[in-house]
Design goal:
The chain contains 18 helices and eleven strands. By secondary structure, the protein is of the alpha/beta class. It has three domains: 298 residues, Amidase signature (AS) enzymes (Alpha-Beta Complex), CATH 3.90.1300.10; 166 residues, no CATH class; 63 residues, no CATH class. Strands 1-3-2-4-6-5-10-11-9-7-8 form an eleven-stranded mixed beta sheet. Helix 5 links the parallel strand 2 and strand 3. Helix 3 runs antiparallel to helix 4.
Length: 568
């Protein structure tokens, strides 16, 4: 039996014993239920003695045992989680509290290094690989009192493996297989989900009540997308706000970790814990932003934060159908029920006192010169056969070049412990183990990154492309729209703030709002609103305090988050 399966079987056994133990301690007061509890709820229950960290951890283990054979949201569980909970309970009893997450189980995307569980990145070659050091953010979470509880599933290598014409579905990896959205956990005949969990991070465990929160990573949508799909809150912070040291990379130009949780308040608590008090010497980008006083973002959460706030509506491409100049294919615009959801959201913003600027288009989105239009900036290698020839001149080398550079640097940081020593070796290992499921959907992206880019020869091309990406997305995109319209933030449907925000390295937060039709569902279910659909507030560099305030006020005004009926 594979080791990761043994770990999950062990979880089931622990949970069964724990369930029996819980029956022996029933009291007149109703037991604390973790299924839909926020971090704030849990903190209060721990403080009041309604639950211990051991009991909390036990309930989470039981939920994994009950539901994960259907959802596949977990890759591994910390075998020492109950022991660590006991230690934190003793510290609490002695009056020693480490921080705002003391005794609370948190899961990590499985590309974030830990020394108490394997870090696989979803890749078969790394299935049992235990790194020699913890990621910096893991140390920060432990210092804040968190229990590093489990590793959540992900798209293999954060989605940087296969590419068209055989792209892997979001949430698939060779270690755990397909994963399923708790709002509709059905599988198609080929095993793919009827309702995508979206992105390369996973919101499954938060929505299903497996743990209090999850730390994901985002290169171009992998925090906002899965948070939107799971009807939870997700924050992609400014690049450099959270250290990336000890995270399997795609490219350090765009990579960031980000919290995923049930409420905006939970996100604020997590961001304060994840962000270091001082810059990390192992990640030069961490000097970008200065943390708030006491590293607490809670003071920015004000129920009236929307009053007088100016919110821009970038209609072109994000709401309305639009084909960029010279392109053969464009943005389809919102579906009717998505458009209605955004109309309702805008009405809610106005009712809360916000000033809506509509339209507030991004100059680089509506630019008529193809070479200056950000929507024409695609990843080199993603060109379609029927695209005009100029597409190949407009593509960006950043992801491919960055993958070759930064993945090899990450492997070197493992001190010889990793099972392969270079991207080239990983490709060869995958090819050799293809009969065993290593690359079900191929590995075209890493083949291209490794073969097409030379770090010396192509450095000038990469640097020029990186400068263009930042300019079109930032200075001539987000910054220009916000400055020209004197905005506090831009309002983007769903998780659609991902791509342009990622190119600029800017923050965005997605908040749950509506349920809409799932286009993949059978025709007879067309009237069933089965798919979560929220919205995102997008802002300039280091605008997390402002965005958290806006998101909190919107959340408190609407209270639209739902829990999946598949995991009551």
């Amino acid at each position: 039996m594979a080791k990761h399966h043994r770990r999950l079987v062990a979880v089931t056994a622990i949970a069964a014993c724990a369930a029996l133990a819980s029956c022996d301690r029933q009291t007149a007061a109703p037991p604390f239920n973790v299924a839909n509890a926020s971090i704030q709820d849990i903190q209060t229950a721990l403080k009041d003695g309604r639950i211990t960290s051991r009991e909390l951890t036990t309930q989470y283990l039981a939920r994994i045992a009950l539901y994960d054979s259907k959802l596949h949201g977990v890759i591994s569980v910390n075998a020492h989680a109950l022991e660590e909970a006991d230690t934190l309970d003793r510290e609490r009893k002695a009056g020693k509290l480490r921080g705002p997450l003391h005794g609370i189980p948190i899961a990590l995307k499985d590309n974030i290094q830990t020394t108490n569980m394997p870090t696989s990145g979803g890749a078969l070659a790394f299935k049992d690989y235990v790194p020699p050091y913890d990621a910096t953010l893991v140390k920060n979470l432990k210092d804040a009192g968190a229990i590093i509880f489990a590793k959540s599933t992900m798209s293999e290598l954060a989605g940087a493996l296969a590419e068209p014409p055989t792209p892997a579905p979001g949430g698939y990896n060779a270690v755990r297989g397909f994963s399923y959205n708790p709002f509709d956990p059905r599988a198609q005949d080929n095993g793919e989900p009827v309702l995508s969990p979206a992105g390369s991070s996973s919101g499954i465990g938060v929505a299903a009540g497996y743990w209090a929160a999850n730390i994901g990573t985002d290169t171009s949508g992998s925090v906002l997308g899965p948070s939107n799909a799971a009807m939870i809150v997700g924050l992609r912070p400014t690049v450099g706000r959270i250290s990336r040291h000890g995270i399997i990379p795609i490219t350090m130009d765009q990579d960031t970790a980000g919290p995923m949780a049930r409420t905006v308040t939970d996100i604020a608590i997590l961001l304060g814990a994840l962000e270091g008090a001082t810059p990390d010497p192992d990640d030069a980008a961490t000097g970008t932003g200065k943390p708030p006083m006491d590293r607490s973002y809670l003071p920015f959460l004000k129920a009236d934060a929307l009053k007088g706030a100016r919110i821009g509506i970038p209609r072109t491409a994000y709401y309305d159908k639009f084909t960029p100049p010279g392109a053969t294919r464009g943005r389809p615009g919102l579906l009717p029920d998505e458009a209605q959801a955004m109309t309702d959201a805008i009405a809610a913003l106005k009712a809360a006192g916000a000033e809506i600027v509509d339209p507030a288009d991004l100059p680089s989105v509506v630019a008529q010169e193809p070479a200056k239009n950000v929507l024409r900036r695609i990843v080199c290698g993603d060109e379609l056969p029927d695209d005009p020839a100029d597409t190949r001149e407009l593509c960006s080398a950043v992801l491919g070049y960055g993958m070759k550079r930064d993945f090899n640097l990450w492997l070197a940081s493992q001190g010889g412990h990793a099972p392969v020593k270079s991207l080239t070796e990983l490709r060869a290992w995958n090819t050799e183990h293809a009969p065993y499921g290593a690359i079900r959907f191929g590995q075209a992206f890493i083949d291209r990154a490794d073969q097409d880019w030379d770090l010396e020869r192509d450095k000038a091309r990469y640097e020029a492309d990186r400068a263009k990406d930042k300019s079109y997305a930032g200075e001539n995109g987000i910054d220009a729209a916000i400055t020209a319209n004197k905005l506090d933030a831009l309002l983007i449907p769903g998780g659609g703030a991902s791509s342009i925000g990622a190119l600029a390295g800017y923050p965005a937060i997605t908040v749950p709002f509506a349920m809409v039709t799932n286009p993949r569902a059978p025709a007879e279910e067309a009237q069933n609103k089965t798919r979560p659909f929220g919205l995102s507030f997008l802002g300039p560099s280091c605008s997390e305090p402002k965005l958290l305030g806006l998101a909190f006020a919107f959340e408190q005004t609407t209270h639209r988050r739902q829990t999946p009926t598949a995991t009551p």
